[in-house]
Design brief:
Blueprint lengths: L1 H15 L9 H16 L21 H14 L32 H10 L30 H7 L5 E4 L6 H7 L25 H7 L8 E4 L5
Parallel strand pairs: 1-2
Helix pairs in contact: 1-3, 4-6
């Protein structure tokens, strides 16, 4: 489905960009480059202590998606699109992350979310477990649980919360608080009988019964609040 959406979006952008644009001489580009350099040099390093930290996660928001959004934004304003910037692209400090999991070249939500929130590359399909855990194998998996942003913040007496436009048990937000061998074990009925003797807790149970999920000050999605 996503490949079809990307193809349609690409065709749409191509059609919109089929227009004549004003030519710009070398002096124009030199001026633009000089101004961007001056803007960078004017940046003052912020050495203050942050009061709040908000982590926004654009699930699936890779370079291609950002490029398409930038072009569309410009074209909707009547420009060719490529020359513009999205707001966050003008932040004084930006960087890129390589999205891959420990055992797969193309990562997915649970491994990516865990990496974002803990700083550790883990196996695909697992949530909050180190790369030593075997995906979809309950028994013994809990000994490989790893801590992340929520545990560190709560250990330092900080208030914490999680807000999502997906299910709160979806694999991306689950990476904040859950430790599970299978991202699809969102409820107890999702755990197959062959794995239930391992005493693994499903994601939803961990959210309301165990730390750090049960210590969240805010837990909500677009449709409801827990």
């Amino acid at each position: 489905m996503w490949s079809h959406c990307a193809f349609i979006a690409g065709v749409f952008l191509l059609l919109l960009s089929d227009r004549r644009v004003a030519s710009e001489d070398p002096e124009t580009w030199w001026s633009i480059g000089q101004e961007e350099l001056r803007e960078t040099l004017r940046t003052v390093r912020n050495v203050n202590k942050a009061k709040n930290v908000v982590v926004f996660v654009g699930d699936g928001m890779g370079v291609t998606t950002v490029t398409a959004a930038r072009i569309l934004q410009g074209q909707l304003k009547g420009a060719s699109g490529e020359e513009g910037y999205l707001y966050f692209e003008k932040f004084p400090h930006t960087g890129l992350l390589k999205a891959y999991s420990n055992n797969m070249q193309v990562s997915e939500s649970s491994a990516s979310g865990t990496a974002l929130f803990s700083g550790q590359k883990v196996n695909s399909d697992t949530v909050g477990l180190s790369s030593k855990a075997t995906p979809k194998q309950c028994r013994g998996s809990q000994e490989f649980s790893i801590d992340g942003l929520l545990q560190w913040a709560q250990a330092n007496g900080k208030s914490t919360g999680a807000v999502t436009t997906t299910r709160v048990t979806h694999s991306t937000p689950a990476g904040l608080y859950a430790h599970c061998a299978n991202e699809d074990w969102e409820a107890d009925t999702d755990i197959p009988s062959s794995e239930q003797d391992g005493h693994c807790k499903d994601v939803a149970t961990q959210l309301v019964e165990t730390s750090p999920g049960n210590r969240l000050d805010v837990r909500c999605n677009l449709y409801s609040t827990i």
